[in-house]
Recover the amino acids of this structure.
């Protein structure tokens, strides 16, 4: 497997999708159904906000080639093999004759999801290749008409979900369709005779009737998951949007197109640094490197990482939609099953600290872990324990009791103030900490609140402030925290409205030289940036980002000197112009006191 090619393909697709999302954001109205009252929306979203954990299923005839075409392993995600290998439409359609999922056991799939602690399932009713997993009257390119299996795959899954009490959602690719004439294709059509046509006619003749089918033939549908709104204008979206009324309580995402926000944000393969304050959101993740089944992709994430991603999402007020990619015979790969069972074992013990919780009150952690909240309970998910226990800095609400979630045993704890006057709660290491995450319950006298001084970065012994990427508050879309060789950085900074803030605490007024440790591909150079205290123009520096060679080539540039007064401040770094569509990868902003 050529991982460099995989990364290149992923980045190109993500860049295009990010540009589309940014364009939509600029014209985005308020979230939810048009004209819907907040009380009505809150009632509709209640189950979803409590669920926190769901199963994504990517399944289709792309599981037949399973990542290989004409003896060659095709780079990229499995369900995109037709587009990546430029397989002619008629040839690709031949895979349907080999799609015979006789080992499909929807009841077992739902039980697996339920035992893993998942509360809902979202399955690809039709992906970009145009193949439908249901009996569609709009086309013969479906599981009933085109395969030897000849049975609707969604009906028994819907019945199993009802039987076991899980919500069911359908993914539907409304714009991209590489099989039917007029369907959109990122990168353009490669089989013009079969693919070229009117997209408006495709929407009217394929997408609209199929959405009516999936929303009308399977009972209660909880989620409609649109995808890749490539070439979706308002007129096309307006043909689809009214169909959601077929399911009055349905939840939709933000990928319909034309600026319609839906109910949820959908970060993919990453967890946003600060979540989406004021928006419901859900991150979708793969267990290996693909969504659709690839026989040779064995790069499986360990259970520890999956559980901690679930915790991370919940700690930021979001949901975690974890993917499985079944085989053409209808089996979920054994490595996926093993990991789901292991995740389920953790969730059975600690699920109360995930389900129905709200986001952490901490912007910054003084221990290795995360936190969630329910009512007056603060749940501390501790990943690694120092021998002398953990220190939880900044909790201002009175603590009444501290105990372990597993077994309920009382934890040893004490409280004191540090040199700044910030409260520090000390909790002793338990006798048998969980190797993945131990949950400690802090019972408070009221909803947990945190002293903002605990978020602030103070100067080191030499007076220097190191404002690292991982400590930045990312405001807005179009930038994210990334892990890379050499440490974390703020990258994918493709939206001029995204800016960074750091809370700082200065013991005395001083003048500082401000430097940025950054990288920027030469072709993307030229952004102008501004550093200031909030919106104050009296304390402001500006500079132009020059190229460093490539995204991995870091250098240091000085923005000049700035006078900062004593006290707690919010230091802001934002782009003012972005002529080349990107800002930089930022590893650190450094403030060194002038002698």
């Amino acid at each position: 497997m050529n991982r460099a090619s995989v990364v290149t393909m992923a980045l190109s697709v993500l860049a295009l999708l990010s540009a589309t999302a940014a364009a939509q954001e600029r014209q985005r109205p308020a979230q939810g159904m048009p004209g819907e009252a907040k009380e009505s929306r809150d009632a509709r979203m209640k189950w979803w906000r409590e669920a926190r954990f769901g199963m994504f299923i990517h399944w289709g005839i792309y599981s037949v080639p399973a990542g290989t075409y004409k003896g060659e392993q095709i780079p990229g995600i499995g369900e995109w093999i037709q587009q990546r290998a430029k397989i002619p439409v008629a040839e690709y359609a031949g895979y349907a004759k080999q799609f015979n999922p006789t080992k499909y056991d929807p009841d077992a799939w739902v039980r697996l999801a339920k035992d893993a602690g998942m509360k809902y399932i979202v399955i690809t009713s039709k992906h970009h290749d145009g193949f439908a997993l249901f009996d569609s009257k709009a086309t013969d390119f479906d599981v009933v008409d085109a395969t030897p299996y000849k049975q609707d795959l969604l009906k028994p899954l819907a019945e199993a979900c009802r039987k076991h009490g899980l919500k069911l959602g359908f993914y539907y690719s409304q714009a991209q369709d590489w099989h039917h004439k007029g369907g959109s294709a990122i990168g353009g059509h490669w089989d013009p005779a079969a693919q070229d046509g009117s997209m408006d006619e495709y929407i009217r003749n394929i997408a609209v009737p199929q959405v009516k089918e999936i929303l009308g033939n399977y009972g209660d549908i909880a989620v409609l998951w649109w995808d890749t709104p490539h070439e979706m204008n308002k007129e096309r979206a307006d043909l689809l949007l009214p169909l959601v009324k077929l399911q009055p309580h349905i939840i939709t995402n933000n990928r319909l197109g034309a600026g319609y926000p839906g109910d949820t944000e959908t970060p993919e393969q990453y967890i946003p640094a600060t979540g989406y304050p004021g928006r419901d959101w859900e991150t979708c993740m793969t267990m290996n490197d693909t969504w659709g089944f690839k026989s040779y992709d064995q790069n499986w994430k360990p259970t520890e990482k999956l559980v901690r991603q679930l915790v991370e999402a919940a700690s930021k007020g979001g949901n975690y939609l974890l993917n499985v990619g079944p085989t053409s015979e209808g089996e979920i790969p054994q490595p996926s099953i093993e990991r789901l069972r292991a995740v389920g074992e953790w969730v059975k013990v600690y699920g109360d600290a995930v389900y129905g919780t709200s986001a952490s009150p901490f912007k910054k952690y003084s221990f290795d872990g995360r936190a969630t909240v329910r009512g007056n309970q603060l749940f501390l998910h501790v990943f690694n324990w120092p021998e002398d226990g953990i220190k939880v800095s900044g909790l201002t609400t009175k603590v009444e009791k501290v105990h372990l979630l597993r077994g309920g045993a009382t934890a040893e704890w004490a409280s004191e103030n540090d040199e700044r006057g910030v409260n520090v709660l000390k909790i002793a290491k338990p006798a048998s900490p969980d190797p993945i995450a131990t949950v400690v319950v802090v019972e408070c006298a009221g909803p947990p609140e945190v002293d903002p001084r605990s978020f602030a970065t103070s100067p080191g012994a030499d007076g220097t402030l190191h404002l690292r990427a991982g400590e930045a508050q990312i405001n807005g879309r179009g930038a994210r925290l990334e892990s890379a060789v050499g440490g974390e950085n703020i990258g994918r900074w493709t939206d001029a409205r995204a800016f960074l803030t750091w809370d700082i605490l200065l013991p005395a007024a001083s003048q500082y030289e401000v430097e940025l440790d950054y990288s920027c591909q030469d072709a993307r150079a030229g952004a102008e940036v501004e550093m200031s205290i909030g919106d104050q123009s009296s304390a402001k520096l500006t500079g132009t980002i020059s190229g460093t060679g490539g995204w991995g080539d870091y250098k240091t540039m000085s923005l000049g000197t700035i006078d900062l007064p004593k006290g707690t401040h919010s230091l802001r770094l934002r782009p003012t112009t972005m002529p080349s569509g990107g800002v930089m990868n930022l590893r650190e902003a450094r403030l060194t006191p002038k002698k």
